[in-house]
Amino acid sequence: LFWGMESGLLLLRERNRSVWTRVRAAGVPLSCVIAGKSLATASVALLQVLVTFGFGYLAFGVKVGGSAVGFALLAAAACGLAAATGLLVAALGGTEGRARSVSILLILGVSLLGGLWVPAFLLPQWVRDVSLALPTTWAMRGLEAVTWQRGGLWSALPSVAAVSAFALALLAVAALKLHRAERRLRQGRV
């Protein structure tokens, strides 16, 4: 998610430095530009996942004890979530400083509540119930299922579906906001 935030901040910088105007002058549809930015962010996020789990394997013996396909699908969904987060930061951010501050606070919050800092079973029950509305909770559940719980593909699919749904929802909101901003820009309104 932090990589997604950084790519969103980069897009904000590009928009403020007129790089965005030059990209948009190329005659490429905005949907292609959004797809390209998303794919680039997701690719770097996938590299991060591979390096992290590779280091975990080499240094600590962390293995995908369950479904490798489930792990791959979950990693792809999480990378899509990072890309969608980045586009949402760029679409809603306004200024880079404000977007960074709000994004860091939100990412740290969903990470804590989602069980990325402490095991979820240590959190109060009401927090665990609320955290079901967060993509980080579903990502952690899926990763637990395919690593140390040795779950099969079917145990990972609910988490893959939930993380993918969050990613698609964030992507839809971001694309809608970017399309509206582009329309206002073309009409001469800022």
The proportion of residues forming helix, as a percent range, comes to over 70%
N→C terminal distance: 29 Å
**How many whole angstroms does the radius of gyration measure?**
18 Å
Choose one word for the global shape. Answer: elongated
For the biggest sheet, the summary is:
none
Structural class by sheet pairing and helices: mainly alpha
Strand fraction: under 5%
- What is the overall number of helices? 8
- By DSSP, the count of extended strands is 0
Ordered list of secondary-structure elements with their pairings:
Layout: H1 2-16, H2 19-24, H3 30-60, H4 68-92, H5 96-113, H6 125-130, H7 135-146, H8 153-186
Describe the protein in words:
The structure is a single chain. The chain is mainly α and 190 residues long. Helix content is 77%, strand content 0%. The chain is built from eight helices and no strands. α3 (30-60) packs across α4. The longest helix is centred in the C-terminal third of the chain and has 34 residues, at 153-186. The protein is elongated. It starts with a helix and ends with a helix. The relative contact order is 0.16. The mean pLDDT is 92.
